[in-house]
Amino acid sequence: MTTVGHIRNELLGLFRRNAKVNYSVASLQRALKLRDSADIKNMVTALNGLMKESFIHQNEQEQYSLGAPKAVIVGTFRGNDKGFGFVSVDDSTDPDVFIAPPNTKHAIDGDTVEINILHPAKPGDPRGADGEVTKVTGHKYTSLVGEFQPFSDKEARQTGFIGTVTSPEKKIHKYPIMVEDTGMHPQAGDMVMVEITHYPDNLHPASMTGMMSQNLGNKNDPGVDIMSIVMSNHIKSEFPPEVLAQAQNIPDHVLDSDRTGRRDITDQAVVTIDGDDSKDFDDAVTVWRLDNGNYHLGVHIADVSYYVRPGTPLDDEAYDRGTSTYLTDRVIPMLPFRLSNGICSLNPDVDRLAMSCDMEIDGQGHVVNHDIYPSIIRSHGRLTYNNVNKALDGDASALGDRQELLPMLQDMAQLHQILYKMRHERGAIDFEEHEAKIIVDDVGHPIDIVLRERGTSERMIESFMLAANETVAKHYYDAHLPFLYRVHEQPDKDSMKEFMDFLATFGIQIHNVKGKDVTPRMLQQVVTDVAGTPEEAMVNVKLLRSLQQARYSPDPLGHFGLAAKYYSHFTSPIRRYPDLVAHRMIREYAHSTSDDVKAKWKQVLPDIAVQTSTAERRSVDTERAVDDLKKAEYMEDKVGQEFDAVVSSVLSFGMFVELPNTVEGLVHISNMTDDYYQFVEQQMALVGAGSHRMYRIGQPVRVRLENVDVEQHNVDFVIVDPDQAPAANFDTSDIKKPQPRSNNSHGGKPSFGGRNHQGNGRGGNRHPRGGQKHGKQPFNQIHMKRK
Predict the structure, then answer these.
(1) Cα(728)–Cα(674) distance, rounded to whole angstroms?
(2) With CB atoms 3.0 to 4.6 Å apart as the test, which of 34, 100, 478, 761 could cross-link to 747 if both were Cys?
């Protein structure tokens, strides 16, 4: 019998002489001429030892070869219509890895993949490395909604399938899903939900198979277009029977037993201020002046947690939904309407249970005293933003029979100015973005798009909610109790360096001590400095792209954009699960702060933070997709018309322009035929190689609507008069028409550079203006969302 040590040396010599050969166990047995079972057993022991010491490794075919196993690189595959793709690696600042068509291993857009680097990136080349997908480990699409087309009887017999479903999503539109016969037989043009059972492979590289689970109706039926998007994003639109049954059993009025342990403040002049069409009121406010000159601010929030108890069907459903979703013609609520519009809504002139946060605020906007407690309130008025704004502008009659509230509203406006000044002085970054409301008719067709105006009342309520959210977060941090925070972290250093380099091209400097983190105040000063200048739009967009995404966390990581050390979501429990959880913790901590209670919350909060952050992003994506659909539909009959627009984003494949009504569309670089345009990334500009005409963010342009694809949510424009474009105001000597170049050895890699590859630039009407990696939301769009 040969010893393990002797066999080990023989194996190592064999591998070193044949470094590129993969050996099976049988081939190694033959190479070493081992026949005895004991020798073969010792060979396996020696192989395991060599692998443990990283002299050799084993591949997926269980073959052995020389060298340590390659580090597994995992990322997200982003497919392109032309067959190639890119893989973005999480927590990596390197450019995305290019995957040529033969090397995708049939990955589809959004798949989680393992990759191998074939050709490392060349120094200074922004295009990144070339790689190959070695394994698809997870699929983004496990189900999808698409249009059904039936097979003929003959085709059904030949294929064993009843028809195909094609997704409207451009990234997977080319993969028809062959539908198995499960007893459902929709008609041609029906939109159906399909559960995917098989993905593209070597045998069927251009199709998938699936089983139908739901028929949403014909694509031309009213509302089916929106519900298709809702279902595609896995937003639950119907409540299970057990949830509705539990909601129905909750009384629609406050019982005497509900009043126990609550402070009765029904005598206070508490009011709700919301939009004209709001149906659920989860926050009410009151303000008065104190004898010492300070302000009393009371923020009273519907105590949803009293009715939605842990472990019940209502709570399980609310946890899954995470948030309400607001669409053009409907709301998909987190809670059944019996609660959200009924007992949990702070309707006027009826008693309601609340969680209250009273604050004493001095003339500098600092909270000098506060109290958080369960209460009973009675709204003294259902006021609207529009009417309060009119009253504050001098038209007291806008308040109708509530004109006695005007002095309090004026105090509120004064307090808002104090709070705003305080936030500004500490460095809160205040972006002002246009928000549009899409008006639809009875069948859901858009008939107008109007801008939402934000007056004093809207800003006032936002100031009060911010104050309460911050006060609650600081209270429980100071008490050393586990809590759920709304966090917006410090921007990463690479993003800030890139932003500062960008500012330098305009002669703008951030005065920062070397080695110190950038502060919100520094960035706020930049926003202030560029206000009203031609660079304002460019700088604001670039700054938004450089910031991180707001999310939920059990750790008090601060809110960078608000320049707040502690921040939570406390004020909207009807539509946000994190707020409901905050109320639940407040109630439990009022009774006990034992080690067992703290340990329980410390254990569950991380999962709640992840789930609610994910649910929020899903909801925002759905809302945006529906807006894009309806905006495209609104523009459909306007092809050929001309519009004034502003360049909203510039990318390698063209530029997006925005109309005054917030409709965005693409001017593709292939339609800019007056010159050969090149993308100058550092300047965020497209520059003509011959004329040196320039297009950059914030620049006004005149455009003509060229095409609308409602199904893909695409709106395409062309420039009407390119001669009106200004000449570049920076060095353009390096911008020349490219010389013809032969394809390189690995497939002619496209020069898209950087991250966020959009292929041909289409993925719906929306451009990657959030700029943050793959759909990241700017913090200010989602830290406060009042509907």
Answers:
(1) 16
(2) 100
* Identity of residue 294: N
What's the pLDDT score for residue 515? 63
308/579 Cα distance (integer angstroms): 12
**Residue 743's pLDDT is what?**
44
Tell me: the pLDDT tens digits for 177-191?
A: 999 998 888 999 999
CB 100 within 8 A of CB 746: yes
pLDDT at position 779: 47
pLDDT at position 589 is 97
Q: How far apart are CA 773 and CA 753, in angstroms?
A: 14
Inter-residue contact 541 to 503 (CB < 8 Å): no
Q: For residue 315, what are the contacts with CB-CB under 8 A and spacing of at least 6?
A: 308, 309
Distance CA 67, CA 510 (A): 49
For residue 217, the surrounding DSSP H or E stretch is strand 208-218
Among 735, 544, 778, 763, smallest CA distance to 656 is for 763
Return the ∠ at Cα 263 (arms to 258 and 265), rounded to 5°. Answer: 110
**Domains of the chain from N-terminus onward:** 4-66 (1.10.10.10), 73-138 (2.40.50.690), 143-221 (2.40.50), 241-427 (no CATH), 462-619 (no CATH), 634-724 (2.40.50.140)
- CA nearest 107: which of 74, 73, 84, 82? 84
Which alpha helices (DSSP H) does 326-484 contain, by range?
A: 337-338, 385-392, 406-426, 456-478
Contacts of 265 (CB under 8 A, 6+ apart): 298, 300, 356, 375, 376, 377
User: 21 is written with which tokens?
Assistant: 């050969």
Count Cα neighbours of 159 within 13 Å in the Cβ-side half-sphere: 18
* CB contact at 8 A, 150 and 162: yes
What number of residues does the chain have? 787
pLDDT at residue 783, rounded to an integer: 43
Contact 348, 292 (CB under 8 A): no
What is the C-alpha end-to-end distance of the chain, expressed in Å? 80
